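Backbone Fold Data
Goal — C-alpha cells
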Amino acid sequence: MMTNLFSSFDPTTNFNLSLNWTSTLLGILIIPISFWLIPSRNNILWVNIILILHKEFKILASNKMKGSTLIFISLFTFILFNNFLGLFPYIFTSSSHMTMTLTIALPLWMSFMIYGWLNNTMHMFAHLVPQGTPPILMPFMVCIETISNLIRPGTLAVRLSANMIAGHLLMTLLGNTGPSLNMLFLNFLIITQILLLILESAVSIIQAYVFAVLSTLYSSEVN
C-alpha cells in the first residue's frame, strides 16, 4: 500500500533523472505507418478520424488558410495518446501535471494574443464589449472580458489536469481498499473499477477534444 495517495503522480526513476517524462512520446508508436500502396484497416481508420476532425475544426476556425487545422488535430492526438496511455499500469501520465498542460496552453494563447493585437487591434477591442451592452455597464464589461481573456490558458490547463487527476485518484483509492475486503465485496469492487476505467477512457477522449476545440475557438476570435 502506498504511503502517500499522490505518489502515483510522481514515480521515482534511476540516475536522478525524470525519465518518466519520456512517456509523453509513447503515443508516436501508436500512429499507424503506411508501408504499402493499399492501406490497412488501421490506416483507413486513422485517416477517417483525421478527416472528421479536419471538417469539425475547419467550421470552428472560420478562416481560409490552408492547413490551419493541422496544429489542432496534432494537439488533439497528442493529448489523447497521453491521456489514454496513462490509464495503463506503470505508465506515467504527463497530462495530469500542470507543467505539461500549461506548456501546451500558454504558448498557444500568447501567440493568439500577439497576432490578434498586432494585426487586428480594432477587432480585439470590439471583443471586449459584447453586442447590446448598456453604456453604463461598458467599463465593467471591459474589465470582465479582459480578466476572462487573461485566465484562459489557466482554465485550459487546470481543466485537463484536474480531470485526469480525479480519475486516477478514484482508481487509486479503490485499488487500495481491495486487500481489506471479503470475496463478496471484492466482486463489486472489480465491477466498479471496470466501469470507472470505461468512464475514464471516455473522459480521456472528451478532454482532448475539449482542449482542441477551445483552442480552435480562441484562434477564431483573433481573425
The radius of gyration is 21 Å. The helical segments are 41-61, 70-85, 98-119, 121-127, 138-150, 152-176, 183-221. The first helix runs from residue 41 to 61. The mean pLDDT is 87.
